[in-house]
From TrEMBL:
The chain crosses the membrane at residues 29-50, 57-85, 122-139. Keywords: Membrane, Transmembrane, Transmembrane helix. It comes from Arenimonas oryziterrae DSM 21050 = YC6267. InterPro entries: YdjM-like. This is Inner membrane protein. The keyword Hydrolase does not apply.
Length: 146
């Protein structure tokens, strides 16, 4: 879960006067697929203690980290996501953007923040839980099958 939240540490850039639209601003470099791969590579050092192969750790963490900017691309606001940074600094949105954009900072704890949570519940969490349950059900059926 930490890897999935890590890209939003870029909000600290505001404290240093880095503009939102900058490569290192919000939804910039830390929201790129390259960043997700670098986080996955760094996580590989924990493979032994996790008793998993380095490739398993890399894939799990990189996918978790990449899920954040990919989902951000489906939000209704902001400047888009620099998915292909450093090769292309263009900010991208998905063609369909049903998830309400989250307010940054204290605004999250407001009526608008609650609306965002409900939107994320509808478009992210409930489908994810449904897929997990379906996968678990399929896995159970595979073990039972003759």
């Amino acid at each position: 879960m930490a890897a999935a939240v890590l890209p939003d540490l870029d909000t600290i850039a505001f404290a240093f006067g880095i503009p939102y639209a900058d490569d290192f601003g919000h939804r910039g470099a830390s929201h790129s697929l390259v960043f997700a791969m670098l986080v996955g590579l760094c996580a590989m050092v924990f493979a032994t203690s996790l008793r998993r192969s380095p490739m398993t750790v890399f894939c799990f963490v990189a996918i978790a980290c990449a899920s954040h900017p990919l989902l951000d691309a489906f939000t209704s606001g902001g400047l888009g996501v620099a998915l292909f940074w450093p090769f292309d600094a263009t900010r991208h949105f998905a063609p369909w953007r049903p998830i309400l954009v989250s307010p940054i900072g204290a605004g999250f704890f407001s009526a608008r923040g609650l609306s965002v949570l409900l939107s994320e519940m509808q478009w992210v969490w409930l489908p994810a839980i449904g897929l997990a349950c379906f996968g678990r059900w399929l896995g159970g059926r595979a073990r039972i099958a003759p």
